[in-house]
Amino acid sequence: MNSAVLLDVGGVLLMPNPAIMSRAIVGIFGRPAAVEFDRAHYLAVAATDAIGYFDRDVYRRTYARSLGVPAEYENDVVANMTRVFTGFDWTRVALGAVRGLRRLVATGVSVGIVSNSTGTVAGMLAGGGVCQVGDGPLCRVETIVDSGAVGVEKPDPEIFRIALDAMGVPATGTVYVGDTARIDVDGARRAGLRPLHFVPLNNCPDPAGDHEHVTSLDEVVELVVDG
Length: 227
Prior knowledge:
By secondary structure, this protein is of the alpha/beta class. It has helices at residues 18-23, 34-51, 56-66, 71-84, 97-106, 121-127, 147-150, 157-167, 181-190, 217-226, and strands spanning 4-7, 14-15, 92-93, 110-115, 131-133, 139-141, 143-146, 174-178, 194-198, 212-214. The strands form 3 sheets. A 6-stranded parallel β-sheet has the order 7-4-1-8-9-10, sandwiched between helices. A two-stranded antiparallel ribbon has the order 2-3.
């Protein structure tokens, strides 16, 4: 069994609030279902991974196109997305996240969180009923490291080291699960962790065999138990 698991938040435990994202689209083009917003997120992340760095304009344009927004409305929708979506809007709990996290913690492995955020990720996780540090009514994790609070963000290896130090575990034998190749996989690898790329759509743009992939937290549980 691996010694510890660190998890990303956006795209793994929490998703953009579809009600917020709808504000960018309704009145211009249709009203997509919540599941379509999730699909758009993963397609947009893959598009930014493919160019080698996270570009918000590429993310937003791919997101809009993935929802079927016609080209003539794209600029308006992207402008609206820029206006309405902030770092505080990752408030929809990802499908299967709570159950998968509870299964992971139940294996006995140490679990922590590492997220690029705005200093608010612990509150968003607690507000969504996902997890908390220490004892309480929610699933227990050992640490929540938020880039906005510690002053360093992924893919810098230092943010992973902060989490490892807080948990008292080594990089060797620790898994990091995140939904971006350039930020999460590359950062975890540089820090000496075992990266697991979270890709529910199986759409990683990197060459086959470059790194491991999972499509759900249930798969993470199986990999952690099997070592």
